[in-house]
Amino acid sequence: MTQATHPTAPSAAPRWKQPIVLLFVMAAAMPISFATWSALLNNFVIDVAQFDGSDIGWLHTVREIPGFLAIGVIVLLMLFKEQFLGLLSLLLLGVATAVTAWFPTFGGIMIITLLSSIGFHYYETVNQSLQLQWLPKKDAPRIMGKLLATGSAATLVSYGLIVVLWDPLGLTYNIVYMVAGGVTSVIAIAAMVLFPSFAAPNPQLKKFVLRRRYWLYYVLQFMAGARRQIFVVFAGFMMVERFGFDVHEVTGLFLITLTSNIFIAPLIGRAVGRFGERRTLLFEYIGLVTVFSLYGGIYYFGWGVVIASTLYVIDNLLFAMALALKTYFQKIADPQDIAPTAAVAFTINHIAAVFLPAGLGYLWLISPAAVFGLAASFAAGSFCLALLIPRHPEPGFETIFQRRLMTGAAE
């Protein structure tokens, strides 16, 4: 990367070398590896290593340890610029994905999962920080929606190739992992070489930042992490364990979700801009309460694969609304807090992720419905907390309590 340039300053560089283009390149590169790894994971660990519910719980606990330690990004920012660290993390994710099938044992899968997870979580931490710094507040929801759609489109191509070619070409886990990881790695290296180094619009604090006025954002991040883990670990596992989905069937389900996201994610971004973060998050959380409750009904009432597949797609679409939580923080944050708080938020998001998958893996053996019932309770708690977000949040007006206090003081 060449000498640092300000991302919002006029530049003689070609339009394709602008920071927003780099965000779209990164948005496309990451899911090629991560989503492919996720799509094959349940079938891979069951077919190759004979995992049960407890094993998959431990795997995801290991996978989330780097997320819990995302606060380490603050230390690395003392050594590397954010942009370079993000691309380096993307490269690690790609390489680790490429060699996943080389380690078909419980221990080997755990180690390679830990490495790929370091790449993924550190990339996501830095990427969120760069988005909030480089995107203007008024355009951030709309552009973030397009970034989500770009990631969905890139993943759609990958999944489409798996569905179409898995049986006819006799693809193996090793071939698919190597191709997906290789593509991500090549893109990461090319981005390091071709894009200039963009200076931070606002110098970021390179120290631990934990501010009292961000408390609602922190709590919502914790709840989102706990809820998300239950979905990521057990919803897909349910489709394989209970309904016997094969690789191309699981991937086909993802394809439906991705196709929908390409069109719906930009609409979600516009909805956040029009209706605000509060209403968007309330809609997401009440939807998740409903979906997780119905997941439990699959086990209590014996509902079939059509209902389970429909709920899975709806669940994925609702999670896209989480971009409203990012823009909520962007509106209330001091500019220099964005990078360190992104690291702190990722750590908070993954507190529950470290112990929930393993613990709930044992509960799953007793009552899968109880696992989804717990997820519904987390969503209900998030709904109550989102009621505290003001219609127009900003520094000093992070919650409705502060707005009321300020109004009362004025009177």
Q: What is the strand tally?
A: 0
Tally of distinct domains: 1
Distance between the termini: 55 Å
**Poorly predicted parts:** none
Taking all residues together, what is the mean pLDDT? 81
CATH homology superfamily name: MFS general substrate transporter like domains
Biggest beta sheet attributes: none
State the CATH class. Answer: Mainly Alpha
Textual characterization of the structure:
It is globular, with a radius of gyration of 21 Å. The protein has a single domain (18-195, 207-410), classed as Growth Hormone, Chain: A, CATH 1.20.1250. The protein is mostly helical and 411 residues long. The chain has 15 helices and no strands. It is 75% helix and 0% strand.
Question: What would the keywords be for this entry?
Answer:
Growth Hormone, Chain: A; mainly alpha; single chain; globular; 15 helices; 411 residues
How would you concisely characterize the structure shown here?
This protein has 411 residues and is mostly helical. 75% of the residues lie in helices and 0% in strands.
What's the layout of helices and strands?
Elements: H1 19-49, H2 53-68, H3 73-76, H4 82-98, H5 106-134, H6 140-165, H7 173-194, H8 215-241, H9 247-301, H10 305-319, H11 323-332, H12 338-349, H13 351-366, H14 368-386, H15 400-410
